[in-house]
Amino acid sequence: MSKNLRFLIICAIAIFIGVKLSSFTIPINGQPVLFKSFIPNIVVPAETLFPIANLPVLGQFDMTNTLFTTLIVDAIIIIIVLAAKSGITGGRVTTFMGNALESFVELLYKNYMLPTLGARTKAVVPIAVSAFLFILISGFLELVPGVESIGKLEPAHAGLRGWCAVNVGSEHNPTALITGVEVKEGESYEKVCGYKPFAQSQYGELVASTSVSAEAHVGGYAMIPYLRRPTSSLSTTLALALVAFIFIEIQGIKANGSHYFSRFFNGHALEQGRTGMMRGLIGNISAVVGILELLSEFIRIVSFSFRLFGNMFAGTVLVLVMMSILPVFIPTVFLGLEFGVAVIQAFVFLMLITVFTSLAVAHSEH
């Protein structure tokens, strides 16, 4: 049997299993429950898990799923660095983690950053490599089971679709599974789903209860994931962009002093614009170019943040859509694609910091 024929047979089997798994019925608590593949609610803003504090002037601060995941990514980076540092004794690297991190940083330093920045590379390495690691690990979280699929159950709010949710735990310690059967507004939850909805306790938690009225109208339930990769939120990518922007401007000022601002506000060009026709034209053009340079500096914030956010958020949507169409085989292909996207986006962000810093510090040479 040729390799191509084996591959086609594997694909056919995977598609057959995927079609079967896209809709099936299994008995739970003595009653048949229908499960369907579905596309969950896709929202751009980060979703609130619980409130942190309510300050008089600044307002309420909430713990969102992207902020919670950001803290986990930060902890992973700290653990990696500490593990690598513990393997360095007397200037010699003695552990696998130490060798791995040293080789990784050396690869980026010698092959990509040093040829662009030269002697200033050492000042840029910490922030550029940190951003690389943060984006890389955030992207890899999409491949971890449970990320964006395990969370807390809430009644679907206005504008969100709701689904049936079956309890697979006990009455006092329920564990809910969303079945994928949609409950539209105005429909009877028990009639659509075949079982009673969850009750809400005095503490605001959802609990399984047989005392809920059969006539209760619940627009289904939505799931707020505990973990959502940070780079799929515009707030996180904008924060990264602002940090990179401020760092680049500081490096430009350190390298050029006050002369750095002459790129944007060229007084000599304005004076030249008042002289003869040709010299005046050149001077006016130079003044306009300076304003455009200033605008381009701030446009970089948009370039940094929206490029990263767009690629990561689109990747999440693509994986969810593919999982709803065919739960087996095809999602694996797109998860592999997400692995590559995470590496590429992390590298692009690192190179943008490197190149823009190089442009900022090189002004003094002209």
Topology:
Layout: H1 3-21, E1 23-28, E2 31-36, E3 48-55, E4 59-64, H2 65-86, E5 88-89, E6 92-93, H3 96-117, H4 121-140, E7 151-155, E8 162-167, E9 176-183, H5 189-193, E10 199-200, E11 206-207, E12 221-225, H6 234-256, H7 267-272, H8 277-325, H9 330-361
Structure description:
With 366 residues, the protein is of the alpha+beta class. It has 2 domains: 30-35 and 151-225, no CATH class; 68-145 and 230-365, no CATH class. Helix content is 54%, strand content 16%. It is built from 9 helices and 12 strands. It has a two-stranded antiparallel sheet. Helix 4 runs antiparallel to helix 9 (330-361). The radius of gyration is 27 Å and the shape is globular. It starts with a helix and ends in a 5-residue tail after the last helix.
Residue-averaged pLDDT, rounded?
81
The side-by-side strand order for the widest beta sheet comes to 1-2
Silhouette? globular
Strand proportion: 15-25%
Unreliable runs: none
Strand element count: 12
* Largest sheet geometry: 2 strands, antiparallel
SS class: alpha+beta
The residue fraction in helices comes out at 40-55%
First-residue to last-residue Cα separation: 67 Å
H/E series, N to C? HEEEEHEEHHEEEHEEEHHHH
The radius of gyration computed from the alpha-carbon positions, rounded to a whole number of angstroms, is 27 Å
- Quickly count the helices: 9
Q: Quickly count the domains.
A: 2
Keywords:
366 residues; two-stranded antiparallel sheet; 54% helix
Summarize this structure briefly.
By secondary structure, the chain is an alpha+beta fold. It has nine helices and twelve strands.
